[in-house]
Amino acid sequence: MTTHPPPRGGFVFLDPEHGRVLRVVPFQYNPETLTRTLQPQTVAGEDGSRSEALRLKGPPHETLRFEAEFDAADQLTPVAGAAPTAGAGLFGALSALETALCPTSAQLVQANGMAAQGMLDITPVEAPLSVLVLGRRRVLPVRITELTVTEEAYDGELSPIRARVALSVRVLTVDDVGFSHKAGTLYLRYQQSKEQFAALIGYGPGAVGYTGI
Known about the structure:
Layout: E1 10-14, E2 21-26, E3 34-42, E4 56-71, H1 91-98, H2 105-116, E5 129-133, E6 139-154, E7 160-171, H3 174-177, H4 182-198
Antiparallel strand pairs: 1-2, 1-5, 3-4, 4-7, 5-6, 6-7
């Protein structure tokens, strides 16, 4: 019998325009805990009208906080043709996460060149689309809002060989990117999945002792 390893969470970074996969950073160990916070987008109190108390302006702001652990002694086997990582410790995995938060060196040089030519109104560069994968039911387009790396051990070359990465992300919705953007499509699938699971709950009012007005 063929056995398959348990699904592994991680990040997939996409070209935001074409949806092409740029790189994948799997978690070595799935997070032990995950904190999710949803803040509803209401209109209550904005105009003083009580009739607006239950109205929603759009999807809630959903944030997730968790830790990912990495250990160079137990790294995933690189795919065929990948550059060797021996002696580099965790620089590869950590750099793959950190570079998602920074323009590339080529983009920085290009922006500097344009500024030197007097082009002051330079359009900010667009970062890769970060997709957080937490099983097949949660594939979330996100913006990484905070990334804290705690390096816990090093090899003889001072390369980190064990580290914990604390991450905070905010789910991108159609309010953020629109319906035609790849992130908007992923968000709609995520929301539709929630609605399908919510519809499976078939309790009646009696389950909570509610008998009527």
